[in-house]
C-alpha cells in the first residue's frame, strides 16, 4: 500500500529541527512526505529547504506564497501527489497537531501497521467523518484517523486515549 503524508506548516520556523527530518527520512522509503508551507510570514520555507538539503531526503516541499486556508494547502499537496506519485492513500496533518517531543517513527510505523484499519476507516461513509473528501476519495485527516485508533497525539509518547 502506497501512502503519502502532507504536513501543513504555517510559521513553524522555530519548531522544525534536524532530528525530525532525520526521523521522517528513516520512514520515507515506505511513506512519501510533502511539506506544504502555507503562506508563512517567518522563515519556515527557508528552514525546510535547508533541512531537506542537509539530509538529501526524498521529501517534497510546496510553497504557497499567501495563506488562503488549510483547504487550499491540502489541495495543493494532493494535486502534487496525484500528478507525480501513484498513491493509494493520502493523509494530511497540521504541524501544530504534532507534539514536538513526539517520536515520528512509531507514529508512521503505526500507519503502516494499521493498513486494515485504514481501509476500514476510509470506507466509512463520508457523512460520518469530520471532513469532506477532496480531489480523490482516499484523502483523509491523520488527526481524525489517529482519533479513530484512539491514539492521543498530544502525549509525549504514543498512548491510547483512556
TrEMBL record:
Domain of life: Bacteria
Domain Glycosyltransferase 2-like positions: 5-94
UniProt-listed Pfam families: Glycos_transf_2
UniProt cross-references to InterPro entries, sorted A to Z: Glyco_trans_2-like, Nucleotide-diphossugar_trans
Coiled-coil zones: none
Name assigned to this protein: Glycosyltransferase 2-like domain-containing protein
Species assigned in the record: Postechiella marina
Organismal lineage: Bacteria, Pseudomonadati, Bacteroidota, Flavobacteriia, Flavobacteriales
Amino acid at each position: 500500500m502506497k501512502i503519502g503524508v502532507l504536513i501543513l506548516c504555517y510559521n513553524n520556523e522555530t519548531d522544525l529541527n534536524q532530528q525530525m527530518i532525520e526521523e521522517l527520512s528513516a520512514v520515507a522509503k515506505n511513506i512519501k512526505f510533502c511539506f506544504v508551507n502555507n503562506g508563512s510570514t517567518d522563515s519556515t520555507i527557508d528552514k525546510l529547504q535547508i533541512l531537506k538539503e542537509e539530509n538529501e531526503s526524498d521529501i517534497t516541499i510546496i510553497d504557497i506564497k499567501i495563506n488562503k486556508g488549510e483547504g487550499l494547502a491540502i489541495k495543493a499537496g494532493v494535486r502534487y501527489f496525484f500528478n507525480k506519485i501513484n498513491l493509494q492513500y493520502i493523509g494530511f496533518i497540521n504541524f501544530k497537531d504534532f507534539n514536538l517531543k513526539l517520536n515520528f517513527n512509531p507514529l508512521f510505523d503505526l500507519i503502516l501497521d494499521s493498513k486494515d484499519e485504514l481501509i476500514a476507516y476510509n470506507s466509512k461513509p463520508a457523512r460520518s467523518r469530520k471532513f469532506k473528501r477532496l480531489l480523490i476519495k482516499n484523502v483523509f485527516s491523520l488527526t481524525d484517523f489517529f482519533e479513530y485508533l484512539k491514539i492521543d497525539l498530544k502525549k509525549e509518547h504514543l498512548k491510547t486515549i483512556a
